[in-house]
Amino acid sequence: MAVAATVAISNSFTPSIRQALTPINRFSSLSSSSSTSISFPTLQSHSFVPIISSKNPNFNLLVSSAMNIEATDKVSPSSFLDRRESGVLHFVKYQGLGNDFILVDNRDSTEPRITPEQAVRLCDRNFGIGADGVIFAMPGTNGTDYTMRIFNSDGSEPEMCGNGVRCFARFIAELENLQGKQSFTIHTGAGLIVPEIQEDGKVRVDMGEPTLKASDVPTKLPANKDDAVVHSELNVDGVTWHVTCVSMGNPHCVTFGTKESKDLQVDKLNLVEIGPKFEHHDVFPARTNTEFVQVHSHSHLKMHVWERGAGATLACGTGACATVVAAVLEGRAGRKCTVDLPGGPLEIEWREDDNHVYMTGPAEVVFYGSLSL
């Protein structure tokens, strides 16, 4: 899969991030350590920056960043993605609190335009575009407006993704040129999801009802509160953790600490070491996402996450929802909380009147690109 991408950097970056991304003035050519050689035109108004120099001679990606950042405001997904070229995939990279995705306009087909194996390569942060997953905007199913499918960075396909659905909503709004407050229905592997784009650009998502029945999460841990697993003991590599299991359409194991240490200090955790042990534990037949949570107050939680199929990420929307549900069930927090993640805060509310969980947070364009398949 040869790649030659031209990318416009979004104007949504903070000044510090823009400074970090300031391009080298001009390149006339670049040769990687392989036999591949890529030529760049010399332009006064743009500079070309190699963001990937791959060991794989069949995979090369280049970024074109406008010297005048303000000029990139004129680029929109609707105009960029309207191009139809055989063998070329146009995409937009989005991020929601640092949880980043490659968004693909797949509205003309019910089959993803790339394979899970290609998604793994594109998500690679050293030899690809770099992302936590690839999201496809597809035709609606069962009366919904759209269908969303996702390939994780390891090629697996999750049922749903909370940060991803916010990015999906903003992607659709720009594709369809929708202005102001907008709402539509999305079919996902977790069922019906309804996002609403707010006037301030944030996206509020009705994430539906949490599933608590142990066998439906699923987990093999025995139910200890009605049909649910709440503040149950789980032995992980010789350490006893207290866990609550919740499904938000995908499985979550939420923990506020171990048997020996009641108050978790999430910044001190080695997620890379402990995360996979939870994800692949034999009590989770479908594997699991794991949230490690520190309680600041009755309405303020801090969470770090190990995502099934993606590893440690900067944010997880469904994980933040599961965290608040677990905190309520364990009596640690109220139904409306701010959840701080490494990428920033999400506002989560688990309503009593309809039992639905609502998530509100940002989603922003990072850049637009094209690649040859």
Question: Residue share in helices?
Answer: 10-25%
Order of helices and strands: EHEEEEHEEHEEHEEEEEEEHEEEHEEEE
**Uncertain runs:** 2-73
**Mind describing the biggest β-sheet?**
19 strands, mixed
Number of strands: 23
- Computed Rg: 21 Å
**Would you tell me the structural class of the helices and strands?**
mainly beta
Observed structural traits:
23 strands; globular; disordered N terminus; 6 helices; DAP_epimerase_DapF; amino-acid biosynthesis; 373 residues; DAP_epimerase_AS; diaminopimelate epimerase; 14% helix
Structure characterization notes:
The chain is mainly β and 373 residues long. It is 14% helix and 36% strand. It has helices spanning 15-20, 77-80, 116-123, 162-175, 271-279, 317-329; strands at 8-9, 29-31, 37-39, 46-52, 61-66, 88-96, 99-105, 133-139, 146-152, 182-183, 186-188, 191-197, 203-206, 232-236, 239-247, 251-258, 289-297, 300-307, 311-313, 336-341, 344-350, 357-361, 364-372. The strands form 3 sheets. It has a 19-stranded mixed beta sheet that branches. Strand 2 and strand 3 (37-39) form a beta hairpin. The N and C termini lie close together (5 Å). 43% of the residues are buried. Residues 2-73 have low confidence and may be disordered. This is diaminopimelate epimerase. It is an enzyme of class 5 (isomerase). InterPro entries: DAP_epimerase_AS, DAP_epimerase_DapF. Belongs to the diaminopimelate epimerase family.
